[in-house]
Amino acid sequence: MQRVAVYPGTFDPVTLGHVDVIQRGATLFDRLLVAVAINTAKQSLFPVQDRIRFLEQQTCAMEKVEVWAMNGLLVDFAREQNAGFILRGLRAISDFENEFQMAAMNHRLNAEVETVFLMSGESTTFISSRLIKEIASMGGDVSPFVPPWVVPELHQRLQQKTAHPPGSHPHRIECP
Length: 176
Prior knowledge:
- 40% of the residues lie in helices and 18% in strands.
- It is an alpha/beta fold.
């Protein structure tokens, strides 16, 4: 019986923290399905096709890893793919409460699927997609935190999004 795991996320954009979990997860399971969530409640910077492309580019040499788009409940996707495990990464203790709650709910929805947590590697505990986008939007160097091909696309996407960033045009206030 194959050990199949799903590693879900929005991956907006993929970070070296995600890559670390994928590489380590691929050693634990016979197949690792990286499931790019299509979450209409979240406004993603990158469309799902770009996020999938970034991940496929990163994982193309990893035989056990497949990249999928996922819409709907994670446990339904796991059932459809005959996956018995959900893989999640934990960066800090602050992640645990939310992850624990999601794991409990997923187990309640499908008791045949177990959630497995991997602690982030020491060098990636502070990396998050949200921080990457914030740093890049302010002109900071994010190259140490994401795969190299993500950097130019991230800057391009942010430039498109903010043609006139706040504070770029000084406003003169008339004093009475």
